[in-house]
Write a structure and sequence with these properties.
By secondary structure, the chain is of the alpha+beta class. The protein contains four helices and 13 strands. It has a single domain (14-230), classed as Alpha-Beta Complex (Nucleoside Triphosphate Pyrophosphohydrolase). The termini are far apart.
Length: 233
């Protein structure tokens, strides 16, 4: 049963602030070997965004996982993202990482993320190197999502599942790890304040509106890399 309304037009929600006062992650912190080292060690750090807040619906939590695919391009790492098709029941039309709910045969979150990535975008596992994960993130639809971080080695071909994925595209990691591009939105619903992040990205005259859980998990990646730098990692 729905207990509060969904945000159906996030771009219409007012922007409370950007975080241009925060420093971007230095480029040397976003090199493949550096990331391998950072994720191989424990870090004293808590995510800024553990979830969306109070759930929209009353149902048991569902385990899920997404792949955070960091593609090793000559000009620097990029993040492979997907735009979901408009007819899906949950998060239709939104920009997301490849991933989904855990199946019974999945032994862990890594297995879920790899299987879903292969099913959704056809990225073969031989191109994927798992380097770690971020803390689980709970969405308003009661998915408890583990972001599995991976390096992806080109060249590769994608084969999109046209039922679930309308488009796949890459965004420079340096853009996403610069808080000047992080916008905080806030809206009031029946006396309750709700807020979310967005990271709009422009390409070829088109805006890709990255928001909600995807933006929050990217912000947590920013927090992880910043905390590692602050602790001298």
């Amino acid at each position: 049963m729905t207990i509060r309304p969904r945000i159906t037009d996030p771009q219409a929600i007012p922007v409370l602030r950007t975080d241009a006062h925060l420093p971007p992650v230095p480029l040397q912190q976003m090199q493949p070997q550096r990331l391998r080292n950072l994720f191989s060690q424990p870090l004293d750090w808590l995510p800024e965004w553990p979830g969306d807040g109070r759930p929209l619906i009353e149902r048991a939590p569902t385990e899920a996982a997404v792949l955070v695919p960091l593609v090793q391009r000559p000009d620097g790492l990029t993040v492979l993202l997907t735009q979901r098709t408009d007819h899906l029941h949950d998060h239709a039309g939104q920009i997301s990482f490849p991933g989904g709910r855990r199946d019974a045969e999945d032994v862990d979150a890594i297995a879920t993320a790899l299987r879903e990535t292969e099913e959704e975008v056809g990225l073969a596992r031989r191109h994927i190197e798992i380097i770690g994960h971020l803390p689980a993130y709970t969405t308003v639809t009661q998915y408890v999502v583990t972001p599995v971080v991976a390096l992806v080695q080109p060249p590769f071909e994608l084969h999109l599942d046209s039922f679930e994925v309308a488009e796949a595209f890459e965004v420079p990691l340096a853009f996403l790890m610069s808080p000047a591009h992080h916008r905080l939105h806030r809206v009031e619903f029946e006396g309750e304040s709700r807020q979310f992040l967005s990271m709009p990205w422009q390409r070829d005259g088109r805006e890709y509106f990255i928001w909600g859980a995807t933006a929050a998990m990217l912000r947590n990646l920013y927090g992880f890399l910043s905390a590692a730098q602050g602790q001298g990692r």
